[in-house]
Amino acid sequence: MPALSQRITTLNGDGSDGWDVFYRARAMLDAGEDVTELTIGEHDIRTDPSILRAMHDSAMGGHTGYAIVPGVSALRDKVAARVQAQSGVPTTRDNVLVTPGGQAALFAAHMAVCSQGDAALIVDPYYATYPGTLRAAGAVPRAVPTRSAHGFLPQREALEAACDGAASLLINTPNNPTGAVYPRETLEMIADVVRNQDMWLISDEVYDVQVWDGTHLSPRAIPGMAERTLVIGSMSKSHAMTGSRIGWIVGPEAAIEALIDLATNTTYGVPGYIQDAAVFGLQSGLDLEAEVAAPFRRRREIAARVLAEQSAVRAIPAQGAMYVMLDVRATGLSGEAFANALLETHRIAVMPGESFGQSAAGHVRVAMTVEDARFEAALRQLCGFASGLAKAA
Ligand code: PMP
Fold it and tell me: What is the CA radius of gyration of the chain?
């Protein structure tokens, strides 16, 4: 076969893509072993039947042809209204592009603001696909380190030290993998640096309604930021619609116009019946979203209780999203060695912190995605395992 492109063969950078434990766990499950899977951010409930009925009705009603590329007006209006209600920033359908999921929105947003070879900043630890997404868009990811002791919130010095010549900064609050919800001071500091450096801010807000402590603030609401911010949204987490691949970008009209040109030449839109289901989901109100979020809220309480009873593992307080980040450095193991050993000895799969960047070394991320009793038992086993290692260390 002829050579593959340099762009695609270098997508994962030098290292591994950080998914080894996940693939090992999947292979064990396929081989019939009983593994507790706490790796990826997938709900243990399915899309609500009422949303599926709306999808079915739309498809049966004939909405199976090409849908208009920017997104159907009803969905763009709903998204605009939602974002305006959250942020107070006047928003219309012209500020919205519908995309096949948040992942595609992240890619398109970087295509829009980074020229080939531009540095694009990400906050470390980061959602595992970020570096590859940026590279796919021709940008060069540059990590802004954070510290566990600061709750993984970015600090001004680290941000300023990294931003020379960068075209954009990508942030994510509520955060995957850390569970941090950025407070106003952090977002104002970020806004200040971004404005001073004349950079774009790409704000990944796919967990915006999964906040357990504090409130979600969109940086687009900070004065002077709407003109340089692209917000990434998705129905995946809020409505348990991961498989429907439906999300959006909200930004300045001129940026959305350019992004529509990109969509015309790449995705050519999102299936109309999926968009109609999304409209139905968004107009179903916050009760449905609260119902989808409820298991994570409960399990976060369970985690807090279990973790308070021991000292071998230190938890980073999970203020939002569906994960708890645990500091396992007292065991003397790296996050990767700990995750591998836990899988081997206890058949429990968690993500090594290193999958999310070097700032999360010595940590593991636990997804709160199995039913409560099983989640509690797995967490107790994890703590017991860590405590045995910590005593020996
Ligand atoms: N951003 C973050 C932080 C995520 O965790 C995810 C999915 N796990 C995505 C974006 C992409 O979500 P989707 O493409 O399903 O909308």
Answer: 21
